[in-house]
TrEMBL record:
<feature type="binding site">
    <location>
        <position position="70"/>
    </location>
    <ligand>
        <name>FMN</name>
    </ligand>
</feature>
<keyword id="KW-0547">Nucleotide-binding</keyword>
<feature type="binding site">
    <location>
        <begin position="15"/>
        <end position="17"/>
    </location>
    <ligand>
        <name>FMN</name>
    </ligand>
</feature>
<keyword id="KW-0288">FMN</keyword>
<feature type="binding site">
    <location>
        <position position="140"/>
    </location>
    <ligand>
        <name>FMN</name>
    </ligand>
</feature>
<keyword id="KW-0285">Flavoprotein</keyword>
<dbReference type="InterPro" id="IPR035587">
    <property type="entry name" value="DUS-like_FMN-bd"/>
</dbReference>
<dbReference type="GO" id="GO:0050660">
    <property type="term" value="F:flavin adenine dinucleotide binding"/>
</dbReference>
<keyword id="KW-0694">RNA-binding</keyword>
<dbReference type="GO" id="GO:0000049">
    <property type="term" value="F:tRNA binding"/>
</dbReference>
<feature type="binding site">
    <location>
        <position position="173"/>
    </location>
    <ligand>
        <name>FMN</name>
    </ligand>
</feature>
<feature type="binding site">
    <location>
        <begin position="236"/>
        <end position="237"/>
    </location>
    <ligand>
        <name>FMN</name>
    </ligand>
</feature>
<feature type="binding site">
    <location>
        <begin position="213"/>
        <end position="215"/>
    </location>
    <ligand>
        <name>FMN</name>
    </ligand>
</feature>
<comment type="similarity">
    <text>Belongs to the dus family.</text>
</comment>
<dbReference type="InterPro" id="IPR001269">
    <property type="entry name" value="DUS_fam"/>
</dbReference>
<protein>
    <recommendedName>
        <fullName>tRNA-dihydrouridine synthase</fullName>
        <ecNumber>1.3.1.-</ecNumber>
    </recommendedName>
</protein>
<feature type="active site" description="Proton donor">
    <location>
        <position position="100"/>
    </location>
</feature>
Length: 376
């Protein structure tokens, strides 16, 4: 019998470029022991070309488990090599990016969400990744691209990738991507969320595992999505902008485990040891500003927060250690904020998933799949 090493990914923190770096993940793990953490997307080419410098991109501390590496790319050889090079680092899953709409990635790069238009390639890439690693593999995608946004087209993608590769887990950012004219940030707000596509996938592919993503902001909402049948929930921006109030409830409210009970002062004390040990590890980088950046959401909506951020801006100009940065700035946050455990979870909107389940598209029909496969 295989015993799972970690609780299932009922809750995960989304991959976010320049946000979910080692520093952020170190802070996140101090707040939640059970959340699954994703790296930022790393292009396969970066891993291959930085072969002599891999720790900088791939190393992480053992506390960060369970952790998933997200890679991106469109060159099978580089994807294979990148997976081989990442293997010794011991990630718990390898995820392939089929959702990024940024012009650099989906435009010139021709990967990210553009790959949703080429499921055959994605299946090949996933087979190559799986052949070069011994951990599970997954795909993160949108529900469509441009006017390829029908539920049937999404199903064709899922069907082809899952039947032609070992992929059994898909993370569904439940809005489509537009490739021209809007920025990556607008691509996370303008196309409407369609959770009904997600729940229809859960219905139509019962042998696969799906994680829902997009616009989910509180543990109440996470639990509501799970109650309606989601296998897992991934949260991005809220976990970055308001880590204390979100991640602080994950272990108890989602996993039913005791919370860490650390106060923010204790989190910062532990983080300081980490921060001062990594400063300047790669020449000038990381600097104090980079190490402190993930903490800037820690006092979201608390008294003293704006003043702390102003002090932080000034302190970045001359502080050379995390210890001196805290000494110079933290007096702006009241003791009652620093020393209290996480407060009651903010409530969220919990009927949004029930409503979506009333809007499910028609069931995906096998006959259409067979017709499509006549071409192969
Ligand atoms: C700053 C930023 C960077 C992102 N980078 C990535 C990335 O590297 N890979 C990826 O699959 N998605 C990336 N995303 C998308 C998120 O993973 C997530 O799908 C999206 O933010 C929707 O979830 P949310 O509404 O909970 O934020 C990024 C999002 C943000 C805000």
């Amino acid at each position: 019998m295989v015993i799972a090493r970690y609780p299932p990914p009922w809750f995960s923190v989304a991959p976010m470029m320049e946000w979910t770096d080692n520093h952020y993940r170190t802070m996140a793990r101090l707040i939640s022991k059970h959340a699954w953490l994703y790296t930022e997307m790393i292009a396969a080419e970066t891993i291959v070309y930085q072969k002599g410098n891999l720790d900088r991109f791939l190393a992480f501390s053992p506390e960060q488990h369970p952790i998933v590496l997200q890679i991106g790319g469109n060159n099978l050889e580089n994807i294979a090599k990148a997976t081989q090079l990442a293997n010794p680092y011991g990630y718990d899953e390898i995820n392939f990016n089929c959702g990024c709409p940024s012009p650099k990635v989906a435009g010139h790069g021709c990967f990210g969400v553009r790959l949703m238009l080429d499921p055959k390639f994605v299946a090949e890439a996933m087979s190559v990744i799986a052949a070069n690693t011994d951990v599970p593999v997954s795909v993160k995608c949108r529900i469509g691209v441009e006017d390829h946004d029908s539920y049937n087209e999404l199903c064709d993608f899922i069907y082809k990738v899952s039947s032609q590769s070992p992929t059994k887990h898909f993370i569904i950012h439940s809005r489509k991507a537009l490739l021209n004219g809007i920025s990556p940030a607008e691509n996370r707000t303008i196309p409407p969320l369609k959770y009904e596509y997600y729940y229809a996938l859960v219905r139509d592919f019962p042998h696969l595992r799906f994680t829902i993503n997009g616009g989910i902001n509180t543990v109440d909402e996470v639990n509501a999505a799970i109650k309606e049948g989601a296998h897992g929930v991934m949260v991005g921006r809220s976990a970055y902008h308001n880590p204390w109030n979100l991640l602080g409830h994950v272990d108890s409210a989602i996993y039913g485990e005791p919370p860490s009970n650390l106060t923010r002062r204790q989190v910062l004390e532990k983080y300081q040891v980490y921060g001062d040990s990594v400063l300047g590890k790669y020449g000038q980088r990381p600097n104090v500003r980079e190490v402190i950046r993930p903490l800037l959401g820690l006092f979201h909506a608390e008294p003293g927060n704006s003043r702390w951020k102003r002090k932080a801006d000034a302190a970045f100009m001359h502080c050379t250690t995390i210890k001196s940065f805290f000494e110079e700035t933290l007096f702006t946050i009241p003791d009652c904020v620093l020393d209290s455990p996480v407060a009651e979870a903010p409530s969220g909107c919990t009927d949004m998933f029930t409503k979506s389940k009333n809007l499910l598209p028609q069931q995906y029909r096998v006959r259409e799949e067979e017709l499509l496969y006549a071409d192969f």
